[in-house]
Write a structure and sequence with these properties.
Layout (H helix, E strand, L loop, with lengths): L1 H15 L48 E2 L2 E2 L8 H16 L18 E3 L1 H11 L3 E2 L9 E2 L5 E2 L5 E2 H4 L3 H7 L5 E3 L12 H9 L2 H5 L5 H21 L5
Parallel strand pairs: 3-8
Antiparallel strand pairs: 1-2, 4-7, 5-6
Helix pairs in contact: 1-6, 1-8, 2-3, 3-5, 6-8
The structure holds 2-acetamido-2-deoxy-beta-D-glucopyranose (2 copies).
Length: 238
């Protein structure tokens, strides 16, 4: 237990003591900071770019809308699909790392955040029977005067809208996400992200878009260690 606590703490401090500011969206804080009273998105409570109050809207199920963006235009999402949608919303609004992938010309947006293939595949499976009317959630709506989103096309299952998890991850939020070739140096919206971020946010990976193979190996080693520690603890990762 102690060993786990020490290892985990080291991961947390090394990834959060560097200062990254937050995205420039309407709900973002200027700088990340602790939000101990978060009801949802608690993965980021140590260092969050959203206020705890923002997460109140996400803290119940079903989520009807976030601000003016309705989630139920094609009917209520299934619980499993909603959970993935929340993870993405939490990352965008609250992650202290999101600004690392800030869009060069639109500072409220992110670009090419590397997601794990398995995360995208699981997300796709969770949503495949839910319905959606936009291929690009950011651009394909019709907005009314109050800023609320409405479908322009008919609702179809996710499994018809997107060919697979890769297609979904790389289309649904425009250019925001890409599927990583690595199974370790990628984000999956759980506590493993703290470790992946340590490598992804390092200076060497900033220069080239691909991460070096030694970082890949180091990441894989750490991941195995983390998984072993978790197993010994009997803790299940989400
Ligand atoms: C809703 O949108 C407004 C303006 O776009 C923004 O100022 C506000 O912070 C948003 N609130 C939430 C909870 O998203
Ligand atoms: C996913 O769909 C895309 C687009 O249709 C296709 O190019 C790609 O080969 C598919 N990938 C897998 C793993 O099936």
């Amino acid at each position: 237990m102690l060993r786990f606590a020490v290892a985990f703490f080291a991961v947390i401090t090394s990834s959060t003591c560097k200062k990254y500011s937050c995205l420039d969206g309407g709900t973002h804080k200027l700088k990340p900071g602790p939000e101990p009273n978060m009801q949802e998105c608690t993965l980021y409570s140590e260092s969050s770019c959203c206020y705890a109050s923002f997460t109140e809207q996400l803290a119940h199920s079903p989520v009807i809308k976030i601000n003016n963006s309705y989630w139920n235009r094609c009917g209520q999402l299934s619980k499993s699909c909603e959970d993935f949608t929340k993870k993405i919303e939490c990352f965008y609004r609250c992650s202290p790392h999101a600004a690392h992938w800030i869009h060069p010309s639109y500072t409220a947006a992110i670009q090419s955040v590397p997601l794990c293939q398995s995360f995208c595949d699981d997300w796709y499976e969770a949503c495949r029977d839910d319905s959606i009317c936009v291929r690009n959630w950011l651009t394909d709506w019709e907005w009314d005067e109050s800023g609320a989103n409405h479908c322009k096309s008919k609702c179809i299952p996710y499994s018809e809208m997107y060919a697979n998890g890769t297609d979904m991850c790389q289309s649904m939020w425009g250019e925001s996400f890409k599927v990583s070739e690595s199974s370790c140096l990628c984000l999956q919206m759980n506590e493993k992200d703290l470790m992946a971020a340590k490598y992804l946010l390092s200076d060497s990976s900033e220069e080239s878009s691909s991460v070096s193979s030694s970082e890949e190996r180091a990441c894989q080693r750490k991941l195995r260690k983390l998984q072993k520690l978790k197993r010994e603890q009997g803790g299940e990762t989400r």
